[in-house]
Here is the input.
Amino acid sequence: VPWQRVVNAQGKVSPRADHWGAEVQRLRLQEEGIAFDESYRMDLKAVRWAGPDREWLIENDFSLPEDRGVPPD
Here is the structure.
């Protein structure tokens, strides 16, 4: 996963000591088409990756996660 795609659980770019790293990350995400609101938050429901599907896990000899249902909103 490219580093700029890793964001915090609030859908925000985490601040960095140099400030510019966060700005570069936000700009790269915007170049990929990710939109931010006025609080610099993205819509995680629209962009979150659910992970590999069941078939891929089986084909690649990974153990299957427990079914925990749909995550809460």
Summary: Residues 3-59 form one domain. Residues 20-31 form the longest helix (12 residues). The two ends are 24 Å apart (CA to CA).
